[in-house]
Amino acid sequence: MENNYDHLTICIGYKNVFGDELTQEELIAIISKYPLSLWLDLFAKIEGFLLVKRDDIPDVQEYLAQAFFLPEILSKIKSEANDPEVYFTLGQLNLLRKLAIAYGTSGTETELKIADICSVLLGAQDFHNDYDELPNGAQDFDSFCKFIIRNGYLNNPVNFITLLHRAYQMNILQAKNVTFRADKSFDDFFIENMRMPVAEAIALNFALSSPFLQAKELLMGQTTIFDPVDFFSKIDLSKEKIDSLTESFSIDLAEVKLQIIEELKPENLGDMPIGYDVSIFRKKPLIRLPDGKLVCGNLDCFFQKATQNLVWMPKARVTDLSKQEDTTLAKDLTSYRGQLFESYMRYLFKEMESKNERMSFAYIPAEDTNDNEEVGDSILIQDDKLILVEAKSRQFNESFKNSGDWVNDGQFIKELIEKSTEQIDKAVKKIRSGQVAKFPVDSAQIKKVYPVVVIYESFPVGFKMQRLIRQKVKELGHLTDPIFAPLEIIYVGDLEYIMNGYDSVTFAELLEQKHSGDPHASETSFHNFSTLYLSSNGVISNGWERSQLDKFSEEVTRPNLRFKDIPNK
């Protein structure tokens, strides 16, 4: 049976085009010809095109290739190509930006030559591919899974508007339902340390993102290097707030350069996971140049910090804490974010229920059970089908993301698989045994249960990763009853995506179709399946995503991005 869902592609490198690799010395020599700020500006813009979908550019790879590759090189590639080509990857860019920081100059050159851009992009991809050669053969299943995990984390496209809307929904609207500390709200804690309320910070983060989401006409030239005070000069904003915001995102060039030089000490670039390891940019994704201007070190890290990791922004500014107090604060923030995520899940499922009466939503609080324990984080019911949802806001550590080592990483097995499936197993047993007095339907009518773990941070589950996870579930002895469909691990963004067609097809109906006989459909990610299913079945968008954008604009950006009055001349 043909696999219509998962397809591997490998990016073209210098060797594919010229037959020989660009040596490490030659690569560094080209980078050293130009100021590092020019390289970082370029890489931030390319990354923005790769990360954020643009309706006016149907083929981003081809568009960027036309901009940065010499015509004769493109002609040579196309004459030998059988499939659509991939020229740019985030791993390639991460490797290059580190080399630029380590070896770029502080000179006065203002324009990068296309021939040099072409050479460094192709050359860097060879070193990235050398480290990450695709495993072959059934005996390499473990290596293949590691390959899929680290590439899935690295090359995950984002919907930035959805990230912003989710940050608003969770940290402002759902915050009304969740307690941070008995003596202090999270908004008060945020104001105390960031000098602004959460809503204003989200709006400013949105404004701060605009340099990195360039129109295609501005691809060339220095357009993402900016002075933060000048950047916010038209907005009614104190310098104290500007400094508080930008300092939470930025690291001085001298500091990051020392760290990267230490990382690059081994002689062969192809022996190190340079392109995967973004830990150096995770907390501080913007780089402050000696003149005070900012340039982006990693756009995905910036997006995540500006939205999903917003809750952690004030922690870095809290001082004079003992080790115990610091640990307590970290636990409080982790618990708070977990509760916000569960509350947001319930909001999404209530939205689903309002859009399609074929499916109903239920939440069974602890007080409605015999043993005073919650029954899943959310429950969805349609006819004789039940979806039991566990929401997991846990984010994995950087070493797991850049190695993909699921075997030796305790978090992966414990948090994502064992704990979740144990909770689902226990909840379903309670429902079927009648221990939930206020269950909305007769439990005996339930014929199929779809166990679902919804995750806050996208995790790669395509390319047979589902098979690996389900094997682990079986080894743990969970979800063995025939009533269970195979476990699904679903990124929250994919639930937001299906909202656009929810009046036509429900969550339960999508899961039923996914497991209706095609093993490729069952094993692929929910994202891949739902995208293909909705498009091939002609499901028309109901505009939910657009309505969220309008709501974000009306309730966040307009009230908080107040422009100064400019006197008439």
Question: Topology, please?
Answer:
Elements: H1 14-18, H2 24-31, H3 36-51, H4 60-68, H5 71-80, H6 90-103, H7 114-131, H8 141-154, H9 160-173, H10 186-194, H11 198-209, H12 228-231, H13 239-249, E1 250-252, H14 253-263, H15 279-282, E2 286-288, E3 294-296, H16 299-306, H17 323-355, E4 360-362, E5 378-382, E6 385-392, H18 398-403, H19 410-432, E7 448-455, H20 465-476, E8 488-491, H21 492-498, H22 507-514, H23 519-523, H24 526-536, H25 544-560
Parallel strand pairs: 1-2, 6-7, 7-8
Antiparallel strand pairs: 2-3, 4-5, 5-6
Helix pairs in contact: 2-7, 3-6, 6-7, 6-14, 9-11, 9-17, 9-25, 11-25, 19-20
CATH fold call of the largest domain: Restriction Endonuclease
Q: What shape does the CA trace take?
A: globular
User: Beta-strand percentage?
Assistant: 5-15%
Cα-atom Rg, whole angstroms?
A: 25 Å
Helix content: 40-55%
Helix/strand-derived category reads alpha/beta
CATH class of the largest domain: Alpha Beta
Report the count of strand segments: 8
Q: Give the end-to-end Cα distance, rounded to a whole number of Å.
A: 72 Å
Characterize the largest beta sheet: strand count, sense, and whether it forms a barrel. Answer: 5 strands, mixed
